[in-house]
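Entry 14. Structure prediction run on the chain below.
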Amino acid sequence: MDIFGPKWEAVGPSGKQMLFTGTFPRAMDEKSRIAIPKRIRDALSLSKNAVLYITRGTDSSLAIYTEEGLGRLAERLASASPTQHDVRTFSRLFYAQAEPVDVDGQGRMRIPSALATQAELGNDVVLVGVHDHLELWNRDRWNQYLTEQSPQYDELAERAFLPIPPARP
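Output returned:
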C-alpha cells in the first residue's frame, strides 16, 4: 500500500471516470482468482456478477478496465488513423487478447490462463491503480520495476509534465 493509502474517486464532469491509485499485494488462488479490494468494489459499485475487462498491458503487466474505461480507450484508439500500421497492429493485439471477466459474489475475478501465463503471474501478484485502469503484476517483477524506475522519479516527472506541442496541420 502506498504511503497515502489507496484512493478511488469519481472525477470529471460525468462523475463516471474513476481515478485509480494505490498498490495492493494479492494472492492468486489455485483457480487463478484474485480478490478485488473492498475499497475498489465499493467505489466501482461492483455488484454480484459485474464484468470487468482484462487484457495485455505494458511492461509485462495486465490491464483491467471497467466497461466505460474500455469504451473511452476504444474511442481514443478509433480517432487514430486506421491506415497507420502501428494503429492496426496494436488494435489487433489489444482487442484479440481482451476478455470480459466476471466478478463473483465474493469480489473475486478469474484471470484467464493465457493472460496469466503471458504476464508470468504466480501466487504473489500486485494490483496497482494507474489513473483510468488497474494493472496486475507479478510481484517480483513489480518490485524490480520500482527499484529500477524510482531513482528517476524527478526526471520522469519533469518530462511527463512538459507542454504538449501543437498538432501539425
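Helices lie at 38-44, 67-78, 85-97, 113-118, 139-149, 153-160.
Filed with the rest of this week's runs.
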